[in-house]
Structure formats: C-alpha cells, structure tokens
Design goal:
single chain; 384 residues; alpha/beta; nine-stranded mixed β-sheet; 26% helix
C-alpha cells in the first residue's frame, strides 16, 4: 500500500485506508471478486482470483492474478502487506493452491507470512487442490473459514469450474433476434438487429472470453471483426469453421494484428486458399472431421476456458447437438421482420413436438436500451 509501487496484479491505494470491521467477511470476499474481475478473459486456463489482507481493520495488501505463469493473487497481496501480514486476515475468493505448477504453492506463502486467519470463498474444484490447501493451512494452525459468498464465487469462475470438472471449455451461444425470431431479413441483411447498448454488452462479453467461433457464412456475409472494440483490454482468439475454405481472400478476420485468427477446416479443403490465408498470418488447422465437438477439444488443448459461439443458425444447432453449448445469451429486439425465408437463430435440432424441447434453467432477463437480454443455461441431457 503506501510506498509500494504499482505492479502487474497489485493495486495502488488511491484513498486513505478504510477502517472496517474485521468480521465483515462478505464485504471483503466481494472486494476479492472485484479485484479478480480485473483480469477477466486473461487468466485461462487458470481461474480469476483476488485477494485482500486486513490488519486491525485496515487493508494492508490487495492483489489479483493477472494471468497464467504470473504470481497468484495471494503473493501480490502479501508482498504489498509485508510485515503487516503477521497476525492479519487474508480474504481470497478461491482456495489457495497447495501444489507446484508454474508457481510455488500459495499455502507456503500464507504460512510464512504468519497470518492468523484465512477466509475462502469457495473450494478449488481442481483435483490437485480441492480441499488440500485448506487442510494444509489448518494443520499449520491457521484459522480457516470457507464458503463466504460461495454462489458469487462459483459464478465468477464458472468457465474454470467447467474446464476442470468436464475437461472442456464453457460454451456460450450468443445471438440477437427480432421479436418474431429472425436474426436477419429475408435478403440476409442483419446489421443491426439490436441497438448500441446491446452491442456494447456483446463487446464486453467478448473481452471476457478466450475464443469466439463463427462459420464461413458469417465471414462471407458480415465480414466481422470479433474484437472487444475497446470495451476491454483483451481480444479473444477468433475462430472460423469452414469445411472447404470457400472464404473471401480479404476479410477483417485476416487482420491478425488486431487479434489472432485460426481457421479449422476439413481434409478436402482448398489448398490454394489455405496457403493464401497462411500468408496473411492466419493459422489453418485441418481436422479429420469438422465438428463443433472436435473444434472445442482443440480449444481446450489451447487452454481456453470460455468459448463464445456467435455463429448462424445451422452451426448453432450443430454445436447444441454436439453438446458443447452450456449457456445462452439471447438478445431480443422490439422489431418485426416476418417472412418464412428469414433465418432464425437455431437450425434444425430434430425436435418434432414440444415435449422434446430443450429446457433452459437459471434464467435472468435484463433490459439493455430498447432490447432485452435473456441469460440462461441449457439443462444437461437426461435431466428431468
């Protein structure tokens, strides 16, 4: 804090220290979540973690994990606290790690610092940790409280939890449609279905994701950039699925100075177009079969935790059927397009009666300008 230089993952004091009750665990875990969120979209395959050290009602150290390979949040906060950490309370939204990866165990740093108490938001689902960090601290005589603001901690790191428990990234399907369920007019024109507030929310969402996926039709029709457009410091990996590589020679996605782009294709793809894309800095990967499941597996191997699907209805349906979509962001605009040929957001799922309809759960609605946003989760197959 005072006199400590601002470094990556640390926070700099901008106002006098706040005197607060040391028993206000909820408040300080919420502060950990705020700190953790500063690195949204930049920590995969690691989680987002924030940390606060409190001594005699005064914040003496804060920090967050800025990215894989960098020190963890506890290290930044304890470094900032220095000798003032002895006898203090440490708050952290995720259980301190107790294994050696690219960085040493955080439990060692906590014990060496002489903290008397640690408050943990949630247990780490990673089997390398999962309770062992808490046990280690308690064995060293540190008082540990677990489960403060646990639901909020789970929400913040839902992509990390998905990745370590299911060995695949969290899949989010985003689309914008008119009130009558159309994502474009009958002629294919789709700019803009929603207003500027909703579009800004999409840009912010991209900044929190590790990759964004579209199909070849989207590239040909819309020529998107798929960046955060300045609404965040992070741009996701841009992913295109194209079986034949019948893609334009020039496109915004081939401007790899903005963000990296990878194109997944099939064995019979156009080799000349593959060379053209590669010459522009686009990575082209041939898969034995071009399916959402295989693409998702590739993105998992690259360390992705959150994958955003911004594709058309045909690819969206394939992704849903392949079981790689977990969550939906559906924007609804107060407009009517009409027309039986106007495309909808999800193609054929093979559903013939309402009893087969895929159920959504944990639904929330938000108003964004004149538009509505539904956030919901797809119920896993086989659950009643």
């Amino acid at each position: 804090m005072p006199g400590f230089p601002l470094t990556l993952g640390s926070t700099q004091e901008s106002s006098p220290p706040k005197f607060v009750s040391q028993n206000d665990s909820t408040r300080w875990i919420r502060r950990c979540l705020e700190l953790a969120n500063l690195a949204a979209g930049q920590t995969a395959p690691n989680p987002m973690v924030g940390c606060v050290v409190l001594k005699d009602g005064i914040v003496v150290g804060e920090g967050f994990h800025p990215g894989a390979g960098q020190p963890h949040a506890e290290v930044f906060a304890l470094t900032q606290a220095g000798d003032r950490a002895r006898g203090a309370t440490l708050y952290v939204n995720l259980e301190p790690c107790n294994h050696t990866g690219r960085t040493p165990p955080c439990t060692d740093a906590v014990i060496r610092a002489g903290l008397s108490r640690v408050v943990v938001g949630m247990v780490d689902p990673d089997p390398r940790v999962s309770g062992s960090g808490i046990d280690r601290l308690r064995q060293a005589g540190v008082e540990v409280e677990v489960g403060v603001e646990e639901a909020a901690c789970q929400r913040l790191n839902e992509a990390f939890v998905q990745r370590v428990t299911h060995q695949r990234p969290l899949g989010l399907l985003k689309y914008a449609m008119t009130l009558d369920g159309k994502i474009a007019a009958t002629g294919g024109h789709s700019a803009w279905v929603t207003g500027p507030t909703a579009r800004a929310a999409v840009h912010q969402l991209r900044a929190t994701c590790d990759a964004v996926v579209v199909g070849g039709n989207t590239v040909r029709r819309d020529d998107p950039r798929l960046t955060s457009h300045g609404h965040g410091s992070h741009n996701p990996l841009r992913v295109v699925m194209s079986r034949r590589l019948d893609l334009p020679a020039q496109a915004n996605l081939w401007q790899t100075n903005d963000a990296p782009t990878v194109v997944f294709t099939a064995p019979d793809a156009d080799s000349e177009r593959q060379q053209l894309l590669s010459a522009q800095g686009v990575e082209v990967i041939e898969l034995p079969a071009l399916t959402p499941r295989l693409v998702t597996a590739q993105l998992y191997q690259r360390g992705c935790a959150a994958v955003l699907w911004e594709c058309g209805g045909l690819l969206a349906a394939e992704a849903i059927k392949d079981g790689v979509i977990d969550k939906l962001w559906a924007f609804v605009a107060p407009k009517l397009v009409g027309g039986t040929d106007a495309p909808g957001p999800v193609g054929n799922l093979g559903i013939h009666h309402m009893g087969q309809a895929l159920a959504l759960e944990r639904t929330t609605w938000r108003t964004l300008g004149n538009d509505l946003l539904l956030e919901a989760y797809l119920r896993p197959p086989g659950l009643a």
